[in-house]
């Protein structure tokens, strides 16, 4: 039986100084038996590498995800959940670990309620999209934020492209001690 192995190559896009850096992680072979591959396998790998170079990148998807994440950040800065709501799927969830080390969270409405009742506008707050990883219609992202209404936190988001639009389906976070 002749089986072909297909690798999914995750893409990592990082925004640095206004530039988008995109890298594709190629699968590596650590098995010595696999390293002594035949000429046809080497030729296939070179052909695959050449084809990968000519395929479109995830730049468009990356920019669309950044737009979604910026809605969240702006909603935090302005302390208005109405600004961030469009970034989230109505079935989205949010979880963290509370002061007692227990799982806390649930429906994303808890975030919106907290933003509207406990946050204050923080126009000088800083937030950075640290990482975005995209594979097909799934993505994950990390945001680090300082002094959002007196809080410093790291958020991890999972996004899906539903009906052609990127949407946050889950958020987990860690709150840091504010400086």
UniProtKB/TrEMBL annotation:
It comes from the Bacteria. Residues 43-54 have a biased composition (Polar residues). Signal peptide: none annotated. Pfam families: Lumazine_bd_2 (PF12893). Residues 27-54 are annotated as: Disordered. SUPFAM superfamilies: NTF2-like (SSF54427). This is Nuclear transport factor 2 family protein. It comes from Luteolibacter arcticus.
């Amino acid at each position: 039986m002749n089986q072909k192995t297909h690798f999914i190559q995750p893409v990592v896009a990082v925004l640095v100084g206004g530039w988008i850096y995109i890298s594709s992680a190629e699968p590596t072979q650590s098995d010595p038996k696999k390293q002594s591959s035949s000429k046809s396998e080497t030729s296939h790998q070179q052909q695959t590498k050449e084809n990968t170079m000519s395929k479109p990148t995830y730049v468009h998807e990356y920019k669309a995800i950044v737009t979604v994440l910026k809605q969240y950040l702006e909603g935090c800065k302005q302390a208005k959940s109405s600004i961030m709501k469009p970034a989230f799927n109505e079935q989205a969830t949010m979880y963290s670990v509370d002061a007692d080390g227990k799982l806390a969270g649930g429906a994303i409405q808890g975030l919106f309620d907290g933003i509207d009742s406990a946050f204050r506008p923080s126009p000088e707050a800083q937030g950075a999209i640290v990482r975005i990883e995209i594979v097909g219609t799934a993505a994950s992202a990390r945001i680090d934020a300082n002094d959002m209404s007196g809080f410093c936190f790291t958020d991890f988001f999972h996004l899906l492209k539903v009906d052609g639009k990127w949407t946050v389906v889950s958020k987990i976070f860690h709150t840091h001690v504010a400086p």
